[in-house]
Every structure is written in C-alpha cells, then in structure tokens.
Amino acid sequence: MKPGKQHVLFLWLLVCSGVTRAIEPISTTIAVGMAATLTAFLATYPNIFNYFHECCRPEWISLNRTGLQVDLENKLFGQHIASRIILKAVNGFMSNSNPKKPLVLSLHGWTGTGKNFVSQLIAENIYREGMDSSFVHVFTSTLHFPHKSQIDTYKSQLQQWIKGNITNCERSMFIFDEMDKMHPGLIDSIKPYLDYYEKLDGVSYRKAIFIFLSNTGGDSIIQTALDFWQEGRNREEIELKDLETSLSLSVFNNKQGGFFQTSLIDKNLVDFFVPFLPLEYQHVVQCAMAEMKAKGLQPRWEIADMVAKDLVYFPKSERVFSVKGCKTIESKLDYYT
C-alpha cells in the first residue's frame, strides 16, 4: 500500500471506527497534533470520504463505455438488435450533461432471452457497485404491487419512492420487472417523471434511467423470427423496423399488461422498444460455455452441447428456438458438471 493510502486509511479509522480508544492512553499534545494533522488533511482533500462510501458523484457513477460494449459483444448472445440499441441509447444519454428527459427503455421478449441480464450489464457499467448500488432500484410487480384493490396506495407509494430517490441522486436507475403482470393504470402514476419537464416541485428527473422488462410482445417477436427462418433468411437480417410497430401495438393493446393503453406509450415517452429474439441451439451452447467460464470451470464444448440438446425447442418437429432460452442453463450445468 502506498504511503498516501496508508495515511488516508489511518485517518479514516480514527474518525469512523473508534480506534482512538484502542491506542489510549495518549497525551494531550499528541492528540492535538493528530487533530491538527487531520484538519489539515481534510482541508487539502475535502472530498476524501466520498471515496470510501458510495455517493452520487462521478467517482461512483460514470459510464464505462468500452466495458458495456465488450460485455454486450461477449456475454449477450443472439441479440444483435438489442445490443446495438442499448449501446447507442445508454452511451448517448450518459454523454449528455443536460438531457431533456429521462432515458426510458422497454425490453421485450420471451423468458431467458437476456432482458434481466442486459439491465444488470447496464447497471454494472454505470455504477461502481453495480446492482448492489444504493442508486439502483428494482421493482417486481408480483412482489411490490400484488393486490389490485390497493392500486391507489401503490400509485402514491411509487411516486414517493421515485421522487425521494431522485432527490437523493439525480442519476438513479429504476428497473421494473414483470411489467406484463403489473395492474393496468399503475405505471401511469409516474408519467410526469418521464416527461419533458425541467423540474417538478423543485426536482429534476431528466438524468434518471427507467428500464421496463416484459414478456408482452414476445409472440410477435417470435413470429417475425420464425417467418425469417422459414424463408431461409439469416436472423441477423432482422431489423428494428421489422418489429417496432407490431411490438408497440401489441404492448399497448394487451389488456392484461401494465402498459395497457398507457400514456407512456400514447405520449411517446418510451424512447426505445427493444426486442429480444428467441434463442437457437447455437446461442444456448454459447450461454453454457460462458456460464462454465463464470463458474471458474474450463469451458467444454461437449458439456455445452449436452446441456443445449437437453432443452425443449419449438416448433416441435424442427426444434429451432429454445422455449426457455438460456434461463435454466445454470441448473443444467450443475447436473452435468
């Protein structure tokens, strides 16, 4: 450890952990001298304690552009559309020191295709503490908003939670999981916070990020992917324009989902509807190889192949797309390794 860091650590211990009791008895002269040293040090480095405790500052919140790009390229499989949109959207937003509105992303696709995983990658490359950051907030519909009869209470609580957290840190991130299971009308309560307002009641929401995760629209995405496959076309030929309109309409008109006729869509406050394509056998193999590496194991193709072949695919006769994507890969590997 460098001398400077040793001094910082020593002073931190003196101030924050009651170590002074352990080095007693101590003379008044030495105590005064130490106090003077600490005072001088803090005058020179007034923000030093920001390095020890997470706070809403660039030291803790700053986009690692290269890291996000590398993670999307090497850890997310079969999602060329999502990778491109996420990288450009997040990079552009975080590079803007004065955005006009919060960044609002809505990620759609069947289970196991990478929606939750991508939200984690975004958090890990913006916040030094990643998903454990006190500025990253996750809401799960079935957990936080289970009862339809209490929707008015949920609306009030949600508004207070978001306002309070953004007041604490303008660079907060909010992830709403299971939007397809959220009670219709609830999410409209936060519409003002996603709009083009400079401030609301003295609070600016324009530097926050809102990410919605939903299975809604998955059927239309799968149908498009299946059409391309039946026509003998490469899945990499699928573009956002082939999916965006049908996806947004499907989400907006789903009576059972949280986005049903929501003003967030009606007022064009969702910046990007991001489709996640169904995964094929080759992508499941890639997931298995990556998971083995993450577990500290030597990646073995033959094991990845067994895991991939053990999954259920559809259409049943052609076995093109994995029903659960990569969702069960971890548990399958526990069995095969």
Automatic annotation (TrEMBL):
Its main location: endoplasmic reticulum. ATP binds at G109, W110, T111, G112, T113, G114, K115, N116. Keywords: ATP-binding, Endoplasmic reticulum, Glycoprotein, Nucleotide-binding, Signal. One of its GO terms (biological process) is nuclear membrane organization. One of its GO terms (cellular component) is nuclear envelope. Residues 279-336 form the Torsin-1A C-terminal domain. The keyword GTP-binding does not apply. It is found in: Endoplasmic reticulum lumen. Pfam families: TOR1A_C (PF21376), Torsin (PF06309). GO terms for molecular function: ATP binding; ATP hydrolysis activity; kinesin binding. It comes from the Eukaryota. Residues 1-22 form the signal peptide. InterPro entries: ClpA/B, P-loop_NTPase, TOR1A_C, Torsin, Torsin_1/2. Belongs to the ClpA/ClpB family. Torsin subfamily. This is Torsin.
